[in-house]
Amino acid sequence: MEILVCVKRVPDTAENEFELNSAGNDLDRDDLVYSVNEWDNYAVEEAIQIVDNVGGSVTVVTVGDDESEEVLRREMAMGANNGVLLSDDAFEGSDGRGIASVLKAEIEKGSYDLILTGAQADEGAGQIGGMLAAMLDLPYASLVNKIEVGDGKTIKVGREIEGGNQEMNEIELPCVLSIQTGINEPRYVGIRGIRKVASVEIPVRGAADLGVDASVIGKDNAKVKRVDYFVPDLGEGAEMLEGSTEEIIDTLIEKLKSKGGL
Amino acid sequence: MSSLIGPASFKVFGFFPTALLSFLIPVVGVAMFAYIMARRVAPLVRAAPDQRFDRIPERIKNLLVLWLAQYRQPRYRTAGIVHIVIFAGFLVLSIRSTSLVLVGMFDGFVVPGFDGVIGHIYNFFKDYAATAVLVACIVAAARRGIVKPERYAVPAKYGKDHTAEAIFVLGLISTLMISESLFEASNAAFEMSQTGHSEFLAPLSLAWIFRAMLVSASQSTLQAMHIVMYFIHDITFFFFLCFLPLGKHFHVITSFFNVLFMRVDKGNIKPVKYGITEAELDDLESFGVKKLEDFTWKHMLDFYSCADCGRCSDQCPANAVGRPLSPRFITIKARDLMFKNYPLSGEIYKSKMLVQDIYTEDEIWSCTTCGACEEECPLGIEYIDKMVDLRRGMVDEGMVPQSLQKPLKALEKRGNPYGTMEKKRADWAREKEFAAECPVKIIENGDTADTLFFVDSITSFDDNIQEIARRTAKILTRAGVDFAILGKGEKDSGNEVVRFGEEMLFQDLKSQNTEAILESGVKNIVTADPHAYNALKNDYKNLPPVRHISQVIAEKIREGALTLKHALHPEKVYVYHDPCYLGRHNSIYEDPRQVLDAIEGLKRVEFEKNRDRSFCCGGGGLMLFYEPEEETRMGVVRVNMAAEAGANVIVTACPFCLVNIEDAIKVGGFEGKIEALDLTELVEQHLA
Q: What is the C-alpha to C-alpha distance for residues B155 and A73, in angstroms, rounded to an integer?
């Protein structure tokens, strides 16, 4: 099975403390460390496991700048066979539709049975999977937490339903799936793994190579624009506990006790 | 004639010379033994390289102390004494057994040099040796068959019971002792009946008793017994020789070599591959142990040498709390696989991935590398290096539990397992009140000092443990030590990174730290974290000398640079818990105790398991992030031990021990009854 997985380089939530920049329109990005979007990592692991079982190859693709190459290498160290970096100044500032258009152009250059995206990334919009499916006119399943590969024409995909129930759907190939975390246990990639693929050539494709419609990409063509970025004010009844961990715990216990929670 | 006819001249039914048998049995026995040994050596030839032919004086010392003097045996009193008797008996009787083989071919053969006084003295001892060995065998059999100590049991998941093999071998040894004595006693009884006196037999020895029993037997009975016992001995002897390499009694042959080649350094970890430099690591196809043949030949020899005594697992804290790890079966399972894949005849089978085939992932991650097993093994069998090698293999295959992937990634990106920003590493020293009282020099700000205080990650970042950093700084200041910290230039020491098999990440941390330390120009290093102490001392190279804070405090007290007040709480009972990486791995047992004892009026007791038998608190570094399957926490077991010792304050000298023991006090319901203190806290409270 030929599988393509869309991945994104994002600030790592575990190793950063997020603060707003002075302009108040984005994170303060000095001193941040980046890694592959967690959902995407699960998607790549799932793709590798499918290929291990039924054969085929895994291609990882990302839209980003030169530095995004590191996440492609990390996923290739995990076991993805090919990586493609879609990079062009013209892509900068694109909205979700713009990014999906770039990805679509790349996907149409190949022949894939299965296209995976993470359910969402750092911005939380969760829009790329659905848009891609629509643009490619392929069936789509979102928030997939289970995949069973069948005879080759169809696969079964699962989704967790409210209350912890599990639903299974049959879906025709080729299709697009957005992958939920927890679908598997992604393997570990150490420095050694990354060094092993350090010299593998990763093709870089720009707007011209892809022949992407210039009218949908870039900041000027974005139809969704971020207008504000802030830490919400404390709402009624909300309170941030302050102090050392010990003090916070003590206050919390006191509060729980006084409200009859303990 | 005052002697019976010996096996070299005897003829069965008057025509068949038994000398023929005396010749055939050893020839067949030795040939079979040589064949079996050649098959047993086969996997060692295919194994990974090892470096064990260096450090000869230390190796000879180990041989004398651990092999010849059986130094570790009496740590388990009864079994140890029984073993020493059998071992010593075997050594003494080896000469007799060899000469007996030749007696069957040449009448009256005597070992050169043993025909005079020496021979008489030897005979005296060997009579007693045979007797003592027989008694020891009976005691051992009773222990195996009737007393059945817990540590010999084989849990169902690890296969079938090993008692039958043990009893069978004790039977073989007893047969050797009895037949040898009867062979000698039958002749002596005959001499006695003919001449009224016989060769001197040691009073109350087996031979002496048998002679008394046989003195009235007929000549034909004695003659038959003399010959039959000779051949029972001869056949049993060669059968036993060939039987040894088939099971746990292989140690009778391999123990000499296993102790000779055992590890001579403590606290360090073997390189990924001997003969490969750190710079060449990138070129290696594969890392660590994945298949049987990835073990080094010495580690395979370990598997052959295990006597199945169960002492390792009896001391193993992971085993004690019900984690899926028993060091004894790490060895036994590997030995069974070696026997299966390298059978005595026929095809050699290919080994599969060991983790999956004979081990499980959780089993290998369960080890805290505390070293209790290695400290105990009378044969010098190693476990930590094997665990690390297996983990290296797992890391290379991406088989790392999710709970460990996060901290490992944080270590890669930020140099600490918490993922906190590098620039916050010295924040503990910037806390206002503390900074006013005790300013700390920071090398990143351009300060210099003689001594580097290496803080390490937990002490730098953990809210509670930062107190250890501040107290250490205060103590060093009071003792007049000129010190500084690296600040953001410091990375995690990586003690657990290398022990969890992430070699390349460790190499990165090591080179960053080494560069920062050497550039700082300090002349020596102090740390309050035994894990950092161990890594810097044993895993790094070319650093200035490293000391643990307990050593510095003890020295400053001796020099008079630090004085401590009378105990603030003379009513409390203190107990010192030896951290694995201070005690077992680095032999620092006395300095922390001297510090406690320097506080006048402080009442101190000992754990029953103290010093080199200290019980691990649950492990440090990355082990804090691992979520093991277990029935209880090691820390809870340890706190229970403190309660049994009658203590209400547990003093330790390691940040991880403090975390684990404090948690255990809460989890185990000891709050208000037992408290945990770091040595630095106790000392700081008592600074005069």
A: 46
**Inside any domain, residue B86:** yes
The 10 Å Cβ neighbour count of residue B227 is: 21
pLDDT mean values, one per 10 residues, chain B (688 residues): 85 90 96 98 97 97 97 96 97 94 91 90 94 97 93 90 92 96 95 86 94 93 96 97 96 98 96 94 94 98 97 98 97 97 94 95 97 97 98 97 95 94 95 96 94 98 96 97 97 98 97 97 97 98 97 97 96 98 98 98 98 96 95 97 97 98 96 97 96
What is the nearest CA distance from A98 to chain B, expressed in angstroms?
Answer: 31
A15 contacts B419? CB cut-off 8 A: yes
pLDDT at B455: 98
User: Looking at the structure, do residues B141 and B212 belong to the same domain, yes or no?
Assistant: yes
Q: In Å, how far is B578's CA from the nearest CA of chain A?
A: 27
Which residues are paired to A170 by β-bridges? Answer: A156
CB B425 within 8 A of CB B487: yes
**B578 lies within 8 A of chain A by CB:** no
Indicate the pLDDT class of residue A87, thresholds 50, 70 and 90. Answer: very high
| B200 lies in the same domain as B322 | no
Judging contacts by C-beta atoms under 8 Å, the chain A residues touching residue B287 are 192
Question: Is residue A183 one of the residues assigned to a domain?
Answer: yes
Are B406 and A35 inside 8 Å of each other by CB?
A: no
Q: Flag if A188 and B395 touch (Cβ within 8 Å).
A: yes
Record: contact A188-B405, CB cut-off 8 A:
yes
In a domain, A154, yes or no: yes
A174: confidence class by pLDDT, cuts 50, 70, 90: very high
Per-residue pLDDT, B1 = 54
Q: What is the DSSP string of B442-473?
A: EGGGT---SEEEE--HHHHH-TTTHHHHHHHH
Verify that A159 and A57 share a domain, yes or no: yes
In terms of domains, do A176 and A206 share one?
A: yes
Query: What ipTM is given for this predicted complex?
Result: 0.88
Q: What is the pTM of this model?
A: 0.94
Instruction: Let me know if residue A226 belongs to a domain.
Output: no
Q: Do B408 and A188 touch (CB under 8 A)?
A: yes
Compute the C-alpha angle B55/B62/B250, nearest 5°.
110
Are residues A245 and A182 part of one domain? Answer: no
> What would the pLDDT profile of B452-510 be if each residue is shown by its tens digit?
999 999 999 999 999 999 999 999 999 999 999 999 999 999 999 999 999 999 999 99
Question: Closest to B414 (Cβ–Cβ): which among A33, A78, A186?
Answer: A33
Interface list for chain A against chain B, based on CB atoms closer than 8 Å: 12, 14-17, 31, 33, 35, 78-79, 185-193, 195, 244-246
Which of B 248-287 lie inside 8 A of A, CB atoms?
A: 281-282, 287
Residue A232 resides in a domain: no
Q: Is B232 found in the same domain as B86?
A: yes
Q: What does each C-alpha distance from B182 to A204, B105, B201, B205 come to in angstroms?
A: 89, 19, 12, 11
Range of the domain at B657: 573-685
Q: Are residues B302 and B420 both part of a single domain?
A: no
Q: Same domain, yes or no, for A210 and A136?
A: yes
Residues A14 and A44 in one domain: yes
Question: Are A190 and B395 in contact (CB < 8 Å)?
Answer: yes
Computed over its alpha carbons, how large is the radius of gyration of chain A?
21
Give pLDDT, residue B3: 85
Domain count, chain A: 2
Question: Hey, what are B198's tokens?
Answer: 């016989």
Mutate: best of A191, A196, A199, A242, partner B, most B CBs <10 A? A191
Give the domain extent around A255. Answer: 238-262
Are A188 and B503 within 8 A, CB to CB? Answer: no
Residues B373 and B516 grouped into a single domain: no
Residue carrying structure tokens 């009073």? B203
In total, how many domains does chain B have?
4
Q: What is the dihedral of CA B196, B200, B202, B206, to 10 degrees?
A: -60
For chain A, say whether B412 makes contact (Cβ under 8 Å). yes
Query: Cα distance from A83 to chain B (closest Cα, Å)?
Result: 20
Q: What is the CATH classification number for the domain harbouring A161?
A: 3.40.50.620
Query: Can you give the CATH number for the domain in which B656 is found?
Result: 3.40.50
Structure confidence by residue, pLDDT tens digits, B437-454: 999 999 999 999 999 999
Cβ neighbours of residue B7 closer than 8 Å, sequence gap 6 or more: B18, B19, B21, B22, B103, B104, B226, B227, B230, B231
